Amino acid sequence: MKEILQLVYWNNTVQNYLIALGVFIGGILFIRLIRKGVVRYLRNWAEKSEGSLDDFLVSVLEQNLLPIFNIGVFYLAMKYLSLPEKGDRILNILYGIAVTWFVVRIILRLIKHALDQYAEKQDDPETKKKQMRSLMAIVKMLIWLVALIMLLSNLGFNVTGIVAGLGIGGIAIALAAQAILGDLFSYFVIFFDKPFEPGDFIQVDDKRGTVEKVGLKTTRVRALTGEQLIFSNTNLTNSRVHNFKKLERRRIVFTIGVTYQTPAEKLEAIPGFIKDIISNREGVTFDRAHFSAFADSSLNFEIVYFIEQADYTFYMDQQQDIYLSMVRKFQAENIEFAYPTQTVYEYKMGEIHP
Questions:
Q1: Which of 18, 84, 156, 211 is deepest in the core (most CB within 10 A)?
Q2: Complete domains list, the chain, with CATH
Q3: Is the pLDDT of residue 220 over 70?
Q4: Nearest to 83 by CA among 160, 20, 39, 26
Q5: What value does the mean pLDDT of the chain take?
């Protein structure tokens, strides 16, 4: 029996082959026990718990960590054999590629799960998840690039030149694409800081519209007149953006003028008339009404009130009704609204005639 075990085939004894086979079979059986025992127990425990994190971790263990263990068992078994230098080199390369593949998948799944959990806590999770697809594409590219460099370094390749080349190339690309990179970083600012989101009604300078899509370089806004406005992300982050979705109450200030012929007692009563008109309205809060100025052709009153909601149509309905009520009240009180007038005086024979 000892003689059979010491027989040599392809630079390895039968005993070495049996040890390698025993290590491989024993390792596989041990992993199967883990899968049927520990993993099944963890899966049952995760299903009974309320949170989703434990379910996710069990899924990562079963779909990614266990395959790494299987690969490790095969690699360990092969190490008990004396392989040609070229064969050992190929084995190390394949093992490195396989482990790198599964490790990167685990990292990407953890990042995606974290981003999904972040999106679930937002007001519109589905929209947030769609926005994260662009972010995940960039993250995947960067992680795979780093993983490739680390793999080559671990396999003995000199990556100094590659890293230096990437650094010089990155500087050249950055200089050539400053605007694109600026818009990309502005996208991250918009994504995380959330000055506005798809569905928000915004105003930028003299342009108004509803945000339809926030892309890596541009943001699309549907204008009130129907056309689509396209802003660069940098332009938006550098501008004063009015986000009307955040509007909780609207402050209204307007001025009216009455003629100089209006009696003093009428002037004194006008703020009370206006207060009565505005105060008796649901969703409207009266602030003040004052005789504010002697204008060229009118006596001016400044009125301030608040609309207690953001709906623009409600605001315009209330404003219209307030104006009409004021017209009716002033007509009933014989108070005339002022309009621009001019009196011309003629000088004739030393007399002044209007």
A1: 211
A2: 2-155 (no CATH), 186-246 (2.30.30.60), 250-332 (3.30.70.100)
A3: yes
A4: 20
A5: 78
